[in-house]
Structures are given as structure tokens and as C-alpha cells.
Design brief:
Blueprint: E1 6-7, E2 15-16, E3 27-28, H1 35-43, H2 48-55, H3 61-74, E4 75-76
Antiparallel strand pairs: 1-4, 2-3
Helix pairs in contact: 1-3, 2-3
């Protein structure tokens, strides 16, 4: 999904970018979980519950839901080449 859709995470309260931490990529606050990783798992068909409990323990179901909803509202779809 990351090749198809870009997300501007700058206004998401659940993620942060810290220089030097996980190469400065957007991560879930107070973790090393990549925000894009949550979305990639969701795009593969996993539910927020499966992501929070099976893939990223400690993420929390409500936080996973908020991140997914934010991504759904803020996805930047590339324009097709003409």
C-alpha cells in the first residue's frame, strides 16, 4: 500500500516523528511501531483488533482504529500519468 497511497501524518495525534528514532519515520507515539505498518496490515485485510492483538501487541485497539480512520481521511492518492 505504501507505494500506492501516501498519508500526511503531520496532524495525527497518535503518531510522531522523532529524528534518529526508526530512521525518522512516522511511528505510533511512545512505540517503535511504524504508522505505515499499521495501515499496510489493514490494507491486507486485518481488522484493528487483529492488528492490535496479533501483530503489534501493546498498540491498543482504540488507537489502531483511530490511526486507520485518520489514514482513510488523509490518504493522498497519486494522479495517474497521462
Amino acid at each position: 500500500m505504501s507505494d500506492e497511497i501516501n498519508i500526511d501524518w503531520s496532524e495525527c495525534a497518535d503518531v510522531e516523528r522523532i529524528p534518529g528514532k526508526v530512521s525518522g519515520r512516522w511511528i505510533v507515539k511512545d512505540t517503535r511501531i511504524l504508522a505505515d505498518g499499521v495501515i499496510e496490515n489493514w490494507a491486507e485485510g486485518l481488522s484493528a483488533e487483529e492488528i492490535a492483538e496479533g501483530v503489534y501487541s501493546g498498540l491498543g485497539i482504540e488507537r489502531a482504529r483511530r490511526i486507520i480512520e485518520y489514514a482513510r481521511r488523509h490518504a493522498i492518492h497519486p494522479q495517474p500519468h497521462l
